[in-house]
Write the structure tokens for this entry.
Amino acid sequence: MKLYYAIGSCGLAPQIALREAEQTFDLVKVDFQTKTTVEGDYFKVTPKGFVPALKLADGDVITEGAVVLQWIADNNPERKLLPAPGSPQRYRALEWLNYIATDMHKGYATLFSPFLDDASKARFIEGNLSTRFEYLDGHLSGSDYLLETGFSVADAYLYNVLTWSPRVNIDLSPYAAIQRFMMRMGKRPSVLASLEAEGISLS
């Protein structure tokens, strides 16, 4: 397998998931500016040009972070990275995956936009993202991870997104439960190995 990623992007979550699943894979870095890799034109891998993309041994390519995470979990059921398909817990997990993808990931993406000034971004954080943080903090105050069943790929995705906070001037210090979650996640061997592979230091 090959995981196509860009440093500091949403490719961190599937890296974590693959390591949790104890899978062997190659990392292929994508240059966002040129849309190229050491292999050549990245658009030949996926016409979307976005990361992450997971290329399977048979050549099939899976895109969209939340879907890549589901594929990893479903193809390594013994690792229990998602609850069993059809179970009530599964739908709770999918709720979280979609919430992170739409409310959190897209919210952070707005803050990376070059078309908004700093004042507009500050208002967006206060008027939009702050309520998301309050919701997450309330939920995590009673649970180590997003699901009662323990760690899942949803946690990897949430951790990935929240690591962007310093880059977009988001202060997470008012949210004690979120901070504990980030510290807990930061100690997992899969997370440490993934950060090292990208050359990222969060300290």
